[in-house]
Amino acid sequence: MAIIVAITLCHQFWNPFLYAIAVMFIGARQHALAVLQHDAAHYRLFPNKKWNDAVAEVFLAWPILLSNQYFREYHFLHHRYIGTEKDGNRIQYGTHTPAGEQTPAWQFPKQKIALVIWLLLRVSGVAGAVYLVRSIHRILTKGSLSDRLLNLSYYAAVLGIIFLINGGQLFLLYWIIPLCTWFAMTNLLRIAGEHSAIDRPDNFYQLTRTTVPSWFDRVFIVPRNISYHLEHHIYPQVPFYKLPELHDCLMAQESYGQKAQIAESYWGVLQELGK
After folding, report:
1. Of 120, 219, 262, 272, which has fewest CB within 10 angstroms of its CB?
2. In this predicted model, what pLDDT tens digit does every residue of 162-200 receive, in sequence order?
3. Alpha helices for the chain (secondary structure H)
4. Rounded distance, CA 205 to CA 161, Å?
5. What pTM did the predictor assign?
């Protein structure tokens, strides 16, 4: 509903600035779909696993070119082997070389100008184009034949409906462009914010940062409490809507607040990622 309102307002009162805001807002709502799909990967959406996975694929993952099943595979490896060569994030995002060294793109903190360039490259559509190509390759090659046919049938039906109602331009402006620009950038910024440039002596707390989001963060960058990431790694079965409460409970323990890397807003994260 929020996306429809954003599209309607932007289309009715068109100007470039309003369109840029709409792209940011819609990209963040796409990110919110990814967060809900992330909960589904942990079987938190519905008690019935078949319903959980079916709803996650059709209504959350496939609209943003994700796969709940594929995500679960590498995400569980991320939880199980965080910070090691088997970490699923290293495999999925190419954060490290086979020798275990961080790749240049994922070396933080960066000089501030280098961080700005990193963000601009990822919001420019370059990262989004890579995301599209990788997603299409996965759709065509991963999974069983029946899964691939079902996935392709879904996209064929969606595209058929879009062109039947002559909605190609709207689809490009208000779904594909937000997906390839703002969603792509904020997703990668979130990954960096979760696990990069963390300075804590305790090994357990060296690997993950929690960010308490500002209102701007919640609306445009990290929706649905996804930035309470250390809490998620400690208690991965807690659903997204309980994470702020869990954060408050943990912060009541003096040792947690002293040891955990906690940023106040994503502006604070950017200060830690840049130097």
Report:
1. 120
2. 999 999 999 999 999 999 999 999 999 999 999 999 987
3. 2-12, 16-41, 49-55, 68-80, 88-93, 112-123, 126-141, 145-164, 168-171, 177-178, 184-195, 215-220, 229-234, 243-251, 254-259, 265-273
4. 48
5. 0.95
